[in-house]
Design brief:
By secondary structure, the protein is α/β, with parallel strands linked by helices. It has one domain (3-283): P-loop containing nucleotide triphosphate hydrolases (Rossmann fold). The protein has 14 helices and 5 strands. A 5-stranded parallel beta sheet has the order 2-3-1-4-5, with helices on both faces. The N and C termini lie far apart (54 Å). The structure holds adenosine-5'-triphosphate and magnesium ion. Adenosine-5'-triphosphate binds at residues 68-69, 72-73, 93-96, 124, 128-129, 132-133, 193.
Length: 284
């Protein structure tokens, strides 16, 4: 069965994250053994992204959400090795700027959705407004609780305009998170990535889990499905996400646009000498 079917959250399904094994790797035993598959997916993505860009009619939005150190940055780095930077971009959602905070919560997201032919990755997203904002009570419950429907409406608008939307929740265990924090502390080249806030946010794990479960249940739709990706093993996370993206692009019916030029006329006008040479060489 494809990972799209295995990991998708069916619309309306209640997700119990504690029942989903973050260390799942399916039939794959190791990174080495999964490598050829990952390479195959990345090669497909490269080819299909070229077609998406050339076709210029549809687009793809990839949303990445997770707790700290679950691997959002790793996914971005990895996916981009399978795509041409021309026509792809990534946008990281930080705390809203003054200008952003002066608008409705979807304003900054709407400005960044992909145009025709493009792929955009959201590293965090408009979902922060029902996650961190809910957990830290940055707005009152009557405000955030209306946002699920608003998000669904927003994503409907975007998908109606020819954008496929794929949303990934990277699922790690608290133990794995702690071990990644420790690596960031111990490795001087990663020190810059660790902060006190990472540890204090960790204490809110149960509250974040509740907020994620509600978001997954209320906003996984046919037009913008959520996938819960077991992410304790970085290689498996990359394997699953690259397959889901490649399969989705495959389904989009992408094709090279027809040429509107008279190729023969151009050949005889600008390449006559080469054609004559080629003819002589082949003895014609
Ligand atoms: P890493 O996972 O590697 O730490 P990061 O995505 O956490 O990377 P940071 O710059 O550390 O990047 O954090 C961005 C912060 O901005 C996050 O804590 C996130 O919750 C917060 N944020 C994003 N959107 C909002 C929002 N709408 N309101 C409040 N905080 C937000
Ligand atoms: Mg952070």
């Amino acid at each position: 069965m494809s990972y799209r079917k295995i990991f998708v959250v069916e619309p309306g399904d209640k997700v119990h994250l504690d029942k989903i094994d973050p260390s799942f790797t399916g039939k794959h035993e190791s990174h080495e053994k999964a490598m050829p598959k990952i390479q195959e997916h990345l090669a497909r993505m490269d080819k299909l992204q070229y077609l998406l860009y050339a076709d210029g009619d549809q687009s793809l939005l990839v949303v990445l959400q997770a707790l700290d150190a679950a691997g959002k940055d790793g996914v971005v780095r990895h996916l981009f090795t399978g795509m041409n930077p021309q026509g792809t971009s990534v946008f990281g959602f930080k705390q809203p700027s003054k200008d952003e905070a002066a608008h409705d919560f979807l304003w900054r997201a709407h400005q960044r959705v992909p145009g025709k032919g493009e792929i955009v990755i959201f590293n965090r997203s408009h979902y922060e407004d029902v996650l961190v904002v809910r957990v830290h009570k940055l707005v009152a419950k009557p405000v955030w609780s209306k946002r699920y429907d608003l998000i669904n409406d927003f994503e409907k608008i975007v998908s109606n305009n020819g954008t496929r939307i794929l949303k990934f929740f990277l699922h790690i265990s608290p133990e794995e998170q702690l071990s990644r924090f420790k690596q960031r502390l111990d490795d001087p080249s990663r020190n810059w990535k660790i902060s006190d806030a990472d540890y204090s946010e960790r204490e809110l794990w149960a509250k974040y889990t509740e907020a994620y479960e509600d978001a997954l249940e209320r906003t996984s739709t046919q037009h913008a499905p959520w996938f819960v990706i077991p992410a304790n093993h970085k290689w498996f996370r990359d394997l699953a996400i690259s397959e889901i993206i490649a399969d989705t692009l495959d389904d989009m019916g992408l094709k090279l646009p027809p040429t509107h030029v008279d190729k023969e006329a151009i050949r005889s006008k600008y390449h006559a000498a080469e054609q004559e040479q080629a003819g002589k060489a082949s003895g014609a």
